[in-house]
Design goal:
CATH architecture: 4-Layer Sandwich
Strand order of the largest sheet: 4-5-6-7-8
Low-confidence stretches: none
Radius of gyration: 17 Å
CATH topology: Deoxyribonuclease I, Chain A
CATH class: Alpha Beta
């Protein structure tokens, strides 16, 4: 990996019959990263696939990156439902606070109002302590398409997709069937993940 900060959703944090070690250790074989974990309230064990665990989210911070910032102020978790959560890591660089929010919104139910409710709760939470000079980055499994009402809502709040800013469109796919994984959830291909 060549990134300073990486957000993962739906990670396996414990061993099971199929996967005999922690998924975070498998991803970071070089031990270059500090892992910040947000466990779901009720992990999805054996609900989607009898060999899978979905335990929560994780943020990886490169250890050398952490040496170059003033300090890591806080790591917080907000539970959005029994199996969805978001985590917030707050950094400080030269008196500017950087809020990195790694989220995983509902993907079990088609009702878009659930995701819209979850994103509104996250933004209301952030509004209680962020200021206009702070930097807020939202990333993760939003589980809505660019055509959705929830995407329109979040962009109307001033958040802009990094990919869209560069390419003037969203990617066709962020979930596709080409990736092979023991824990891959098969769903409709499309664009559901963003960095805003």
């Amino acid at each position: 990996m060549k990134c300073d900060i990486l957000g993962l959703q739906e990670v396996n944090l414990v061993s099971n019959d199929c996967y005999n070690h922690n998924q975070l250790e498998d991803i970071d074989k070089t031990n270059e990263y500090h892992h910040l974990i947000a466990k779901a309230q009720l992990p999805l064990r054996e609900k989607l696939n009898k060999e899978s665990n979905i335990d929560g989210n994780a943020i990886f911070c490169r250890k050398t990156y952490l040496e170059n910032i003033d300090r890591t102020l806080k790591h917080q978790v907000m539970h959005l439902s029994f199996n969805n959560c978001c985590q917030l890591v707050t950094f400080s660089v030269k008196d500017v606070k950087i809020y990195t929010v790694n989220l995983n919104l509902n993907n079990l139910y088609e009702d878009e109002s659930i995701r819209e409710f979850q994103i509104k709760n996250i933004l209301n939470w952030l509004d209680t302590f962020t200021t206009k000079k702070d930097i807020v980055v939202l990333l993760g499994g939003f589980n809505f398409t660019p055509e959705s009402q929830t995407y329109k809502y979040i962009t109307d709040q001033g958040f802009k997709s990094c990919y869209f800013n560069k390419k003037y469109k969203e990617p066709e796919f962020t979930l596709h069937k080409k990736i092979e994984s023991n824990f891959k959830r098969i769903g409709s291909e499309g664009c559901y993940d963003y960095i805003l």
